[in-house]
Write a structure and sequence with these properties.
- Helix content is 82%, strand content 0%.
- It has 82 residues and is mainly alpha-helical.
- Helix 1 crosses helix 2 and helix 3 runs antiparallel to helix 4.
- The longest helix is centred in the C-terminal third of the chain and has 21 residues.
- It is elongated, with a radius of gyration of 24 Å.
- The two termini are 47 Å apart.
Length: 82
């Protein structure tokens, strides 16, 4: 196959897919809106990973568990807002 034939075949496949499943084709095109959102869940988990062992050593495991519970609730709430 030459390059033109391959491009036409690819175009035909894309056209057929767009008609068969437009929702899938839209998702595959990627997000149409601006930059990616700030990774709040990742940053929150990284902060917990770094601070919980130190907090548990200095203040005790009960304080660390309370901090973990509060942080998880906050992360879930932040995730639900987006």
């Amino acid at each position: 196959m030459s390059g033109d034939q391959e491009m036409r075949a690819l175009h035909d496949i894309e056209l057929h897919l767009t008609h068969e499943d437009p929702a899938f084709a839209t998702r595959m095109r990627g997000p149409q809106t601006g930059p990616r959102p700030f990774p709040t869940v990742f940053v929150g988990c990284a902060l917990l990973y770094l601070t919980l062992p130190i907090e548990a050593l200095l203040l005790g495991w009960i304080v660390a568990l309370v901090t973990l519970l509060v942080a998880v609730v906050l992360l879930v709430l932040l995730r639900q807002l987006h």
